[in-house]
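Good morning,

Attaching, inline, the backbone tokens for the sequence recovery test we're adding to the shared suite. The designed sequence is right after.
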């Protein structure tokens, strides 16, 4: 029989108050009367209401001098979270305990039953923080399929938490691959901002686990896959006075060039993902800026003409209305010298060696990627080139100027793939059998709440995944140490929250606003959680719970540098030439 601790003195759908009238009872059960632990209350129908402890305070009593505090009596404020009917736990309750009902400490065997493995709750997440002997199982389908937010301050164990969750998903434990005999069908894509996660999924060759690792030296992301927003974000300065003319001529040149190289496709628009030559588009815009026409002969003349122009491109200028000016026999084009700055920026961008993986990606034989190579480009992101369950896209070497474009383009491509694959399966009366999870690490760096135009495309891509992705087998995990700086639209779509220690008041309040009102009090523990400890809330967990996660093995490269330890060692000489060579990418 479980220990009786008190009785109900107040009951509402949001709160049940329990009175403990004896200090000896409180002292005896002090270990079980802590915030986040559970109590059992009779509801008068042979069922038991399970409540989570939210607050504990000494009871106030009236006296002739007003109210005083009686430290021998206590009020425990709890939140009803479910009922035990027979031997089955159900979330929510149709009836509430009435005053004077008895309250008991929840037995360990009932706690184990609530969080035990069954057909739905079959994914092991960790152990209960208040009772490390009780493993916590969650509904893996609802966890990965309904979007996840992992938030926590620096040093809270965020990277280890993400690595542990993903290792459990693909079958990695203690440096071993549980599925090395049979290749499983999991597909996880990680946007890795600080090159942390490669170590966590890099097993010995004997384990048969292949990691798909892409960085700026191996990532192939052809510019012709970009949509209008991404192209304009890369090539056009939105605050320039004639940016509308720049957009107009860029759009015209790209559509014409796409039609030139894809004559077998009947309908081509600005956003159609087919090959075009960015060099020829540049030449067209350059010559639109400097071209003149002889009024008598009709001959096109270019000031400092660009080599390599094809006859078809010259013919495009036949449609340009050249202005008649009092300059002898030479008439200027309609955009004469108007695109000077635009041409310079285009040239600078196309010659920036840091972003050659976008502006000039080449196949192994040195040739360009064309429309027919779209399949191979897509396969690299979801591990189909080397049959990898985990694909890491290392963003640490991606210049900040194109960081958001890179994330936007890859996210959008994966969404479009999942969308069209789902439609094909639906036509065959089947569901998407190739679900994908995208992990957006340090998400505040590229999907902020900011309304700046440079983030417009990436926010649209990720928000679309958050709003519609689960219908097409595409889940997302948003990871950040500054949740208050992330697009609220994206976080509001997350049905599961893994909240580690948060010390910033703005972040704490932001997370509380996103969580259900019923657990507002328990979320007050966020500043005091230890490393690897978290509050787990959402559709995937039977009830909100404080969880202790095991350390991943192998662990990500996320350890802090031990300053004092290193400063206490003898002076170390550095080979500066090696640093400079890597800096210059020699």
């Amino acid at each position: 029989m479980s220990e009786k601790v008190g009785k109900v003195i107040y009951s509402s759908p949001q709160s049940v108050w329990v009175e403990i009238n004896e200090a000896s009872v409180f002292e005896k059960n002090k270990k079980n009367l802590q915030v986040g632990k559970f109590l059992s209350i009779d509801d008068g129908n042979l069922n038991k209401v399970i409540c989570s402890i939210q607050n504990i305070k000494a009871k106030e009593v009236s006296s002739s001098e007003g109210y005083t505090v009686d430290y021998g009596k206590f009020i425990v404020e709890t939140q009803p979270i479910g009922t035990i009917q027979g031997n089955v736990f159900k979330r929510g309750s149709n009836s509430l305990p009435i005053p004077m009902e008895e309250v008991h400490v929840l037995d360990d065997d009932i706690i184990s039953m609530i969080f035990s493995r069954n057909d739905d709750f079959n994914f092991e997440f960790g152990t209960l923080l208040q009772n490390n002997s009780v493993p916590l199982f969650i509904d893996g389908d609802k966890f990965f399929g309904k979007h996840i937010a992992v938030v926590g301050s620096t040093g809270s164990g965020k990277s280890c938490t993400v690595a542990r969750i993903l290792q459990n998903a693909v079958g990695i434990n203690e440096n071993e691959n549980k599925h090395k005999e049979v290749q499983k069908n999991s597909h996880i894509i990680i946007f890795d901002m600080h090159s942390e996660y490669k170590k966590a999924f890099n097993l010995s060759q004997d384990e048969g686990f292949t990691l798909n690792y892409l960085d700026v030296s191996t990532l192939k992301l052809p510019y012709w896959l970009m949509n209008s927003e991404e192209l304009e974000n890369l090539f056009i300065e939105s605050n320039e006075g004639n940016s509308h003319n720049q957009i107009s001529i860029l759009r015209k040149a790209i559509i014409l060039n796409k039609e030139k190289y894809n004559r077998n496709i009947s309908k081509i628009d600005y956003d159609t993902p087919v090959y075009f030559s960015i060099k020829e588009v540049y030449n067209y815009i350059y010559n639109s800026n400097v071209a003149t026409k002889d009024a008598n002969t009709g001959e096109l003349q270019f000031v400092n003409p660009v080599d390599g122009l094809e006859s078809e491109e010259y013919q495009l200028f036949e449609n340009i209305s050249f202005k008649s000016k009092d300059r002898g026999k030479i008439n200027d084009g309609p955009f004469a010298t108007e695109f000077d700055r635009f041409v310079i920026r285009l040239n600078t961008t196309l010659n920036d060696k840091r972003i050659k993986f976008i502006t000039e990606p080449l196949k192994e034989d040195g040739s360009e990627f064309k429309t027919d190579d779209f399949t191979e480009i897509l396969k690299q992101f979801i591990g189909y080139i080397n049959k990898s369950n985990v694909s890491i896209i290392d963003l640490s070497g991606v210049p900040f100027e194109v960081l958001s474009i890179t994330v936007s383009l890859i996210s959008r491509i994966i969404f479009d793939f999942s969308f069209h694959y789902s439609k094909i399966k639906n036509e065959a009366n089947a569901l998407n059998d190739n679900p994908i999870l995208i992990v957006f690490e340090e998400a505040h760096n590229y999907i902020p709440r900011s309304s700046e135009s440079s983030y417009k495309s990436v926010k649209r891509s990720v928000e679309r995944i958050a709003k519609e992705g689960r219908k097409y087998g595409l889940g997302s995990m948003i990871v950040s140490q500054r949740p208050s700086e992330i697009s609220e639209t994206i976080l509001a779509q997350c049905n599961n929250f893994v909240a580690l220690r948060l010390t910033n008041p703005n972040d704490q309040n932001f997370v509380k606003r996103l969580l259900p009102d019923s657990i507002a009090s328990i979320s007050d523990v966020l500043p005091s959680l230890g490393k690897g400890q978290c509050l787990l809330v959402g559709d995937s967990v039977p009830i909100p719970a404080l969880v202790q996660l095991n350390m991943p093995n192998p662990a990500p490269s996320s350890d802090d540098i031990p300053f004092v330890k290193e400063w206490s060692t003898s002076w170390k000489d550095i080979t500066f030439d090696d640093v400079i060579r890597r800096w210059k990418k020699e």
